[in-house]
Predict the structure.
Amino acid sequence: MISVEYLVLRSNVECTRLTADSETAAQISMDNTAGIKMTLTGDFEINDKVNTLTDRLQVIMHINGAAHPLGKYVICGIEPQTTQAGRRVGSYTAYDLTYLVQSSKTEQRHYIAAGTKYTDALQALLIESGITDFIIEPSDATIRTAREDWEPGTSRMDICNDLLAEINYNSLWMDLQGTIRCSKYLQATAENITMDYTAGQYSLLYPETEQVIDTFDRANVFIRVVEDAENQTPLRAESVNNDPDSALSTVNQLRRVVDYDTLDNIASQEELQAFVDNLKFKSLLATTETTFSTGPNPVHQAFDVVALSFGPDSGIYAETRWSIDLSAPYRMQHTGKRVMII
């Protein structure tokens, strides 16, 4: 038995509810390559009690009596219309709570003192954006030199994501509880699997696979350099693919194909090395996208690593997108990039 509730929260307390239009399906979609990763769309009966400027919309899916939150959203657009039956219905678009960070802009150059912990700088930016419910995974990394990189009017989301990239974290995202998260980037390997699908589980349907493997002139040596105005010697890191099992490696190609670039900032030499190591790992992934459908599995978040055990498409996938229909048959669609060492 499955049902969905749409709670309208005022100061994080339910004040009213929305009723979904029975003739159309609402949907939540997630795209971890987007700035704002989760979006809710759907047609709902107009509720005049809702203050779209301050109220938030929480979605809860009930499966066999168990409640599963599916995030909290800022209502950003309503297109009202009247049905043939005379009902007032609106087509709603709502974005996850990172929208508040994206829409929060600095009023002057943003300054961060040397020695500030990255996590403290991130916390300050989230609080300045009006975010009080957040989780920042611990890191001892500190700002190496005083920073004043960001012009007035810069989105605090952009500043957060710049800082997150410098410590090899994922870009900013919201979990299903409605909590803003700053989390470490995890390579799509067996030890990092967060979701496992086998045949018959969650009504798993046949995957649809699109595979393009382009090995032409792909790098096997990755070099990044960070210039430092306060030190004469720049930071430099190199990561080399010399794996004899990889067709792209220096061993098998008998040549070095170099990917060289400079970065504006990084937290440390260690983080710079991790950065190029991650570039090397990503270069070994074939450009293989698999889309498969399941029944509703309301525990997927951003940056999941999915194991798919189902025929020729079995493997480990970095999930890039998913969407879930909020009405029968509650179909869920997943898209991921498969780990195939080449």
